[in-house]
């Protein structure tokens, strides 16, 4: 028999932690019936200033309860990736959510999200096999599957994602459109350290020396953006030249694409994306560029 809801299922003056998807779904339905909007911020935990910014952006939306999900999704990790060592710091994550005045933390178990015998997944389409998908086969199938499950459980009005994972953001936009999820997907600009390094939970793996090398990624993107008025070839050459100055970096790809990750236009908005390994740590980054125009812009 289902237990009745109590005041502890949602406390506006504090963060409430839920682990059971069905119970959270009932709380969300009650909030929606009371006229509240719901903003979902999906994370894998190890929260940092970038996640804080996502929560703050979610709070700006009118009459909104912010739900932060914390779930290290095994379906998006390959057999030789860092699932086992991915940073987990649940108590401090909850403290951050409390400090940022998120209303609810959803922290399900793997068994809750993928019951025994679960087989259905979400196929990302052709874009899922490019860029990150070419290096990490099956990654975006795992991402879209867990995000679709979160959308169904939380039933958000808004879902907030960072632009650092730009390909992921574009695929989630496509999934929401193609599968008729009734919500708005919101992209938030990348949060960076003072020297330009994009914030990432995986930055914690870097040694001090590797941390210095990692800055080369954002420096290469910035160099490319600064010459965007000269066209695509100049953008890629400038970025490659900067990356070549740090041989300790192993580049997986550096590509210039359209904003939808199709072919880059001759003139207009585009996206410059990079992925590389610094030591054993794999990092990604991207920047907006305006090709063939005198005004340069970036993140």
Automatic annotation (TrEMBL):
Q: Which CDD domains match?
A: PanC
Pfam families from the UniProt entry: Pantoate_ligase
Q: Which GO biological process entries does UniProt record here?
A: pantothenate biosynthetic process
Source species, domain of life: Bacteria
Q: Which GO terms describe its molecular function?
A: ATP binding; pantoate-beta-alanine ligase activity
Any one of the GO CC terms: cytosol
Where do the catalytic residues lie? 51
Q: Which UniProt keywords apply?
A: ATP-binding, Cytoplasm, Ligase, Nucleotide-binding, Pantothenate biosynthesis
For binding (R)-pantoate, which residues are annotated in this chain's numbering? Answer: 76, 168
Positions that bind ATP: 44-51, 162-165, 191, 199-202
What does the entry list as the binding residues for beta-alanine?
A: 76
- Keyword Cytoplasm set for record: yes
Q: In which pathway does it act?
A: Cofactor biosynthesis; (R)-pantothenate biosynthesis; (R)-pantothenate from (R)-pantoate and beta-alanine: step 1/1
Q: What is its EC number?
A: 6.3.2.1
Show the catalytic activity. (R)-pantoate + beta-alanine + ATP = (R)-pantothenate + AMP + diphosphate + H(+)
Q: What family does the entry list? A: Belongs to the pantothenate synthetase family.
Q: What else is known?
A: The reaction proceeds by a bi uni uni bi ping pong mechanism.
Task: Output the PANTHER family linked to this UniProt entry.
Answer: CYTIDYLATE KINASE/PANTOATE-BETA-ALANINE LIGASE, PANTOATE--BETA-ALANINE LIGASE
According to its UniProt entry, the function of this protein is described as: Catalyzes the condensation of pantoate with beta-alanine in an ATP-dependent reaction via a pantoyl-adenylate intermediate.
Name of the molecule in the record? Pantothenate synthetase
Question: Which species is this UniProt entry from?
Answer: Lentzea albidocapillata
Question: What are the top taxonomic ranks of the organism?
Answer: Bacteria, Bacillati, Actinomycetota, Actinomycetes, Pseudonocardiales
């Amino acid at each position: 028999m289902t237990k009745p809801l109590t005041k502890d299922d949602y406390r506006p003056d504090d963060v409430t932690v839920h682990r059971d998807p069905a119970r959270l779904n009932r709380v969300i339905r009650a909030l929606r019936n009371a006229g509240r909007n719901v903003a979902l911020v999906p994370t894998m935990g190890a929260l940092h200033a970038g996640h804080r910014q996502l929560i703050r952006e979610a709070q700006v939306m009118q009459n909104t309860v912010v739900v932060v999900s914390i779930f290290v999704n095994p379906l998006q990790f390959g057999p030789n990736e860092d699932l086992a060592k991915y940073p987990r710091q649940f108590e401090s994550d909850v403290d951050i959510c409390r400090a940022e005045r998120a209303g609810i933390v959803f922290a399900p178990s793997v068994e809750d999200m993928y019951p025994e015998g679960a087989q259905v997944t979400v196929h990302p389409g052709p874009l899922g096999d490019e860029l990150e998908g070419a290096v990490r086969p099956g990654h975006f199938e795992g991402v879209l599957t867990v995000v679709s499950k979160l959308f169904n459980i939380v039933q958000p009005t808004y879902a907030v994602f960072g632009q650092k994972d730009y390909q992921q953001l574009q695929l989630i936009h496509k999934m929401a459109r193609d599968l008729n999820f009734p919500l708005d997907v919101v992209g938030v600009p990348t949060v960076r350290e003072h020297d330009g390094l994009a914030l990432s939970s995986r930055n914690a793996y870097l040694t001090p020396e590797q941390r210095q090398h990692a800055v080369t990624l954002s420096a290469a993107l910035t160099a490319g953006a600064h010459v965007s008025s000269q066209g695509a070839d100049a953008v890629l050459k400038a970025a490659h030249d900067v990356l070549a100055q740090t041989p300790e970096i192993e580049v997986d790809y550096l590509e210039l694409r359209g904003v939808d990750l199709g072919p880059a236009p001759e003139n207009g908005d585009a996206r410059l994306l990079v992925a590389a390994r610094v030591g054993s740590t794999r990092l990604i980054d991207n920047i907006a560029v305006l090709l063939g125009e005198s005004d340069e812009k970036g993140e």
